[in-house]
Specification:
With 439 residues, the protein is α/β, with parallel strands linked by helices. It folds into 2 domains: 156 residues, ATPase, nucleotide binding domain (Nucleotidyltransferase, domain 5); 230 residues, Nucleotidyltransferase, domain 5, CATH 3.30.420. Helices cover 39% and strands 17% of the residues. It is built from 14 helices and 14 strands. A 5-stranded mixed sheet has the order 7-6-5-8-9, sandwiched between helices. Helix 5 packs across helix 13 and helix 7 packs parallel to helix 9. The chain is globular. The N terminus and C terminus are likely disordered. Bound molecules: 5'-O-[(R)-(carboxyoxy)(hydroxy)phosphoryl]adenosine and zinc ion. 5'-O-[(R)-(carboxyoxy)(hydroxy)phosphoryl]adenosine binds next to helix 7 and helix 8.
Length: 439
Amino acid sequence: MLILNKTAGVFFKPSRRKIYEFLGSFHFHPGKLFLHKLVLGIETSCDDTAAAVVDEAGNVLGEAIHSQTEVHLKTGGIIPPVAQQLHRENIQRIVQEALSASEVSPSELSAIATTIKPGLALSLGVGLSFSLQLVDQFKKPFIPIHHMEAHALTIRLTNKVEFPFLVLLISGGHCLLALVRGVSDFLLLGKSLDIAPGDMLDKVARRLSLIKHPECSTMSGGKAIEHLAKQGNRLHFDFQPPMQRAKNCDFSFSGLQHVIDKMIMQKEKEEGVEQGQILSSAADIAAAVQHTVACHIAKRTHRAILFCMQRGLLQPSSAVLVVSGGVASNLYIRKALEIVTNATQCTLLCPPARLCTDNGIMIAWNGVERLRAGLGILHNTEGIRYEPKYVGVQLKPSIGQYAKHVKKSRNLRPKLFTEEEQRKRVGSKASPATSNEGT
Ligand code: KG4
Ligand code: ZN
C-alpha cells in the first residue's frame, strides 16, 4: 500500500504502524469511508412513516417512506388509531430500508433524530418508542425534533440560505409565518386561528366528492382542487378573502370553508344534485376556492415581509421567503406568492415537492443542523415524551399584532389580479389589487 506523503512529495512504503494510524483516523468500515457524521431521521407525526440517513454535508444517503394517504382518503380523514396501527406495521421496514439504501449500519450512526412534537399523539408515540429502542440498543445520542423546525430548515439542505429568513409553512396540519433567526430561534409572526389551508382544501374536496371524480380519485384534497381548478373559471364565484380588516399576519380558513359549504349546498339545489354526487360547477368552485386561499395567504405574507423589512429584521438586499408544506406544492399559490416577493424585492424559495411534504430527510437534516450547532443532543433519554400540541419556547408568542403599523408604499404593493380580471369580478366593489386594506 502506498500513501502519498504530501510534505515530502514522494511515494513511500509506510510501516504497518503508520497504516493502522492512518486507518484509525477515519470512521472506517470495510469497503466504506464515512468522512462525515451520519444522522438517521425518523418521522411519524401524522400519516407518513418516513426515515432517512443524511450526512453532515447534506448528502442524502438513503430514504424510505410509507404514505397512508390512500387509506385515509377512503375513510374521509385521518382516524388516529388507524394511523397508529399503520405506523406500527411499517416503521421497522421503513427504517431498515433507509439504512440499507444508505449502506449504513446503526452502529455507524452519529445520532438518531426523531419528531416528538407537534402531531397526533398516537402517531408520534410509535416513532418515539421505536427510536428509543434503537438509541438504547446502539448507545447513540438522541435528538428530539420539532416538526415545524424541520420543515423550516429543509431549505438549507437544498440551497445556500443564511439566517435570518422568513418562512411560510402551509400544509394539512400547519399554517404559520415565522422569522427563522437560527437553528432553534424562531420569531412567530402569524398563524392560523383555526384550521390549516390544506385541511380546508381537503374538507372542500370531500364536500365536492372529488374522490369520485375519475381524474382525482387518488389525489389528496388540495391536489384535486388544483387539478380541477385548471378546468374551471374562478370568476363564476366570488368568495371574499378572510380577515380583510384584521391588520396582522394571522390566517383563518374555517369561515371561508363554511361559506363554500353553503354555496355548494345552494348549487346542489339549483342543479338538482344529491349530496355525494359531483356538481357540474365543481371545477369553477375549485378555481374560486384556490384563488381565494391564494389571495389570503399572499396578503398575510406580504404584510409579514413589509413588517420584517421596516423593523430591520430582514435586509431588503438579502431578504428570502421560504415556502414549504404540502400546500406549497400548489403552483397557483406559488404564483401569488411570487407576485408578492417580486413587488418587495424578496427572493422566493421552495424546497422540491418531495421535501415540501412530510419526509424523513428533513428530520435527519434537522438532526445534522442541531449536531453542528451543538443544540439539544441527548445522551440520556430518561423522561423524554412526545408533545402533540407543543408550541415550544423557540416559537415565541405571535408578534403579528404589531404588523398593523406596517406602511405600504405604492411601489411595494403587489397586484394579485390583472386589470381585466378586476373588471370581470362578479359584484366586487374594492379589489385586493387596488385596495390593500387588511392585507
Ligand atoms: O405537509 P403535508 O404532506 O402533511 C401535513 O399536513 O403535515 O401536507 C398535506 C396537505 C394536505 O392537506 C393536501 O391536501 C395538501 O397538503 N396538498 C395540496 C397540494 N398537494 C398537497 N394543497 C394544495 N395544492 C396541492 N397541489
Ligand atoms: Zn408537516
